[in-house]
């Protein structure tokens, strides 16, 4: 039998240990030897505590027990993201992890709502979405199993402690044979002819050689950026925020099953409730606010006592021009970072891992077609997320210097086309794969004041009185189902209570 392919993961943290755990779960150890190199001297960013529903899919893919996972990470449930003061000051809406309405006739439900909205016979769009109605009442239950149940058409994500998640995955992966190498990397050795990475050398003098390297070294992108020179594609012309200040606080009584994003004069503030604390942060533009001003504004708007000193993070929104170059694959911050507004960072790590497992070479020499396909998929994912994030910024009242610039950016043609088609008749392209399908775009566009001028013509066929009756019945059914749903606090206490940290 041939020697196993040497796969070396550089860096731990969430990205590194997610990758290591997936390798432990799915790779045949006869063909692949997997080692992870990290140093206790180097800290991790560790502030990403809100996720998307795809994280449950990843945990299920590994075979993790949900209750044990939530207890180990002090996790709570997440039905969506509430946006406060976005669009217009004084307004709020939720981007839910679920659909609006139920099938009514020939057209999709949203088209019927647009028709009824223009006729003046529709309730607000959120009234027809179970996860939104439940979230605003601080209620939660697991999705129903029968498709005809009103409480089945949604999914959920988690609020979690990212540091504890990485630590639990480390234990899980090491127990299944992943080798961890402790040490600070002081040199990267490259092949003289090809420039490929041959090995990383540690301060101890140890040399860790490999055939394929996964760069999980964070913002510094040690292998892909610094060593191989793959440039960062800077997207700050569209996404103006370049800093964040974060601080944990005592958990308040408002134990919401959703993340909150509140618009501020120079950016926005997040609020993420875990079982043992609340995560908070202010994402801002340094051109409009100093670090001290951002920290003061954040501390003034907490709903519980701060548990630490505010911590400042810097970033440039964008992605590496190639996520896989030579024999190096970048994941997480090493491959790019947009911003945390829609909780996409861990999802992008997950996407990279799944693509890597699918395209992993069977021999040390790497077919360029594998690299090309990996880069194509990751480029599509980043581009779609970028456009979705830009949408949040441009559809606002320009009531400060920051927001005047944010609302006036020259949007990518792909986003301009999507908005115009939506304005015309509410059309949103559904992707076969990837993030943010029609309900996500509908929630944000309508939530920030962009409503289609007309509905799909197929929605005209249903008689008006029948449409109004069905909409009324649907809103009533959702309200009744929410009323019978337990509180988020009670559900977590019964289902997955975590021990005191």
CATH structural class of the largest domain: Alpha Beta
Shape assignment:
globular
CATH A-level architecture of the largest domain: 3-Layer(bba) Sandwich
CATH superfamily descriptor of the largest domain: FAD/NAD(P)-binding domain
How much of the sequence is in beta strands?
15-25%
Strand order of the largest sheet: 5-4-14-15-16-13-17
- Largest sheet, described in full? 7 strands, mixed
Give the overall average pLDDT. Answer: 95
How much is the radius of gyration in Å?
A: 23 Å
Annotated CATH topology of the largest domain: FAD/NAD(P)-binding domain
What is the count of DSSP helices, taking H or I runs of 4+ residues?
Answer: 15
| Cα distance spanning the termini | 48 Å
Total number of distinct structural domains: 3
- By helix and strand content, what is the structural category? alpha+beta
Number of E-state strands: 21
Task: State the low-pLDDT regions, or none.
Answer: none
Q: What percentage of residues falls in helices of 4 or more residues?
A: 25-40%
Description:
There is one protein chain. With 501 residues, this protein is of the alpha+beta class. The chain has three domains: 5-49 and 161-235 and 317-383, FAD/NAD(P)-binding domain (3-Layer(bba) Sandwich); 76-159 and 412-488, no CATH class; 243-314, no CATH class. The chain is built from 15 helices and 21 strands. The protein has helices at 13-26, 54-62, 66-72, 109-119, 130-136, 162-175, 222-227, 291-300, 345-359, 368-394, 401-407, 413-425, 438-447, 464-483, 488-495; strands spanning 5-10, 32-38, 76-78, 80-84, 92-96, 157-159, 179-182, 185-190, 197-202, 207-209, 212-215, 232-234, 243-249, 259-264, 267-273, 278-284, 311-314, 318-320, 324-325, 328-330, 336-337. Strands 5-4-14-15-16-13-17 form a seven-stranded mixed β-sheet. Strands 7-2-1-11-20-19 form a six-stranded mixed β-sheet. Strand 14 and strand 15 (267-273) form a beta hairpin. Helix 1 (13-26) runs parallel beside helix 6 (162-175) and helix 1 packs parallel to helix 9 (345-359). The longest helix is centred in the last third of the chain and has 27 residues, at 368-394.
